[in-house]
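2024-03-11 09:14:02 INFO worker-7 job=invfold-0412 stage=load source=structure_tokens
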């Protein structure tokens, strides 16, 4: 029984991977914000980086222009149980130009990350301007603090009914492919409930921003 379930999940994963690879091969990428992935790439549409001394605004900026991030959770896989485990997740904090600061995700119970979150909702999300043209244009190595990146800690929680329309619109407008992901995978909307923020945007160590400062900040 357990075996059958496992085989079934593997078949579904294989199908998903197959269709993902297929769409990579046949269609141009349709997401906004990633490397070669859309409008933020163009210097004319990528808004300027806020002043580096305003770390809260810089953090909001990085979240807003990011189409994806690496989310670390605590693994439930036998081989690495209890150890950190990071995976790439597509995300959006709002339609272009109207970011809320809240990183929204479209998740499936088939994902390893979701298995982990079901046992322990704590997670850490990293997003970097390395996914935009910014770092390459300025010749900043991704590990350089000048290639601005941020780390957010918190818990991943499901989005409630009231917030669902905004989460859905935010994600689907920047990741149009999501609309076609197989409904059999039981996708749901989730978000990171941010408790701690670190900003690496210059030499001298990470800057700490509180969630209050972060949500209070505005970017144009
Ligand atoms: C849904 O979530 C939002 C954002 O966290 C919150 O403001 C709102 O009160 C929640 N609504 C319900 C019905 O729980
Ligand atoms: C979000 O995080 C805050 C700060 O830790 C906490 O007080 C709040 O209960 C959390 N919200 C939910 C819905 O888990
Ligand atoms: C919120 O933003 C306003 C306007 O930028 C600023 O004056 C105020 O100090 C900020 N408050 C916090 C808690 O960051």
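2024-03-11 09:14:09 INFO worker-7 stage=emit residues=220
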């Amino acid at each position: 029984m357990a075996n059958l379930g496992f085989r079934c999940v593997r078949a579904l994963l294989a199908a998903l991977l197959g269709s993902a690879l297929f769409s990579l091969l046949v269609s141009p990428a349709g997401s906004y914000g990633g490397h070669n992935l859309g409008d933020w790439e163009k210097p004319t549409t990528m808004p300027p980086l806020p002043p580096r001394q305003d770390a809260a605004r810089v953090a909001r900026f990085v979240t807003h222009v990011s189409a994806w991030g690496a989310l670390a959770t605590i693994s439930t896989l036998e081989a690495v149980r209890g150890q950190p485990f990071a995976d790439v997740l597509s995300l959006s904090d709002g339609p272009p130009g109207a970011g809320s600061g809240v990183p929204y995700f479209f998740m499936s119970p088939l994902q390893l990350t979701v298995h982990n979150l079901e046992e322990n909702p704590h997670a850490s999300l990293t997003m970097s301007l390395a996914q935009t043209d910014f770092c390459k244009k300025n010749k900043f190595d991704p590990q350089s603090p000048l290639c601005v990146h941020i780390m957010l800690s918190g818990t991943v929680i499901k989005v409630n009914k009231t917030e669902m329309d905004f989460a859905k619109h935010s994600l689907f407008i920047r990741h149009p492919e999501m609309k076609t992901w197989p409904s059999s995978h039981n996708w749901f909307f989730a978000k990171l409930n941010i408790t701690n923020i670190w900003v690496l945007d210059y030499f001298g160590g990470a800057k700490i921003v509180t969630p209050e400062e972060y949500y209070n900040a505005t970017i144009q």
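2024-03-11 09:14:09 INFO worker-7 stage=report msg="The CA atoms of residues 59 and 199 lie 6 Å apart."
2024-03-11 09:14:10 INFO worker-7 job finished
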